[in-house]
Amino acid sequence: MLLVSTFFCFGQKEGPIVLNKLDNPEPIKKITIQKRSQTWIEGQWNVDNNNYKWVTGHWVPKRVGYHFINGLWIEKGNGWVWRDGYWETVPIKKWKLMYS
User: 44-48 and 51-55 as β-strands: parallel, antiparallel, unpaired?
Assistant: First the structure.
């Protein structure tokens, strides 16, 4: 369990702490259409020069042996911090089951 949580923390980039979670400037789109060669990345906050910048959801080519974990807000101290989404490795047999 410790190894998994350690990987989780180091696999993402954190932004600056803010007092309140930032609202999404656009509604989150839940894409139900599956594309064999593409993965939908939900819109998310990116950190640019210590400021938050919204990046709209988009399709990207699938990466064999990986799946995308969307970014999320984490409560930290007296505020909130955004953790960017990231690609997580998946054993190839499991990956084939997920995407075939």
Answer: antiparallel
The residue ranges of every structural domain in the chain are 2-99
Beta strands 72-76 and 79-83 are antiparallel
Which 8-state DSSP code applies to residue 11?
T
* Both structure tokens of 51: 């400021």
pLDDT of residue 1: 36
Give SS3 for 92.
helix
CA distance 78 to 98: 38
Q: What is the DSSP code (8-state) at residue 82?
A: E
pLDDT higher at 58 or 27:
58
How many of the other CB atoms lie within 10 Å of CB of 70? 15
The mean pLDDT value of the chain amounts to 80
Complete DSSP assignment for 19-60: SSPPPPSSPPP------TTEEEEPPEEEEETTEEEEE--EEE
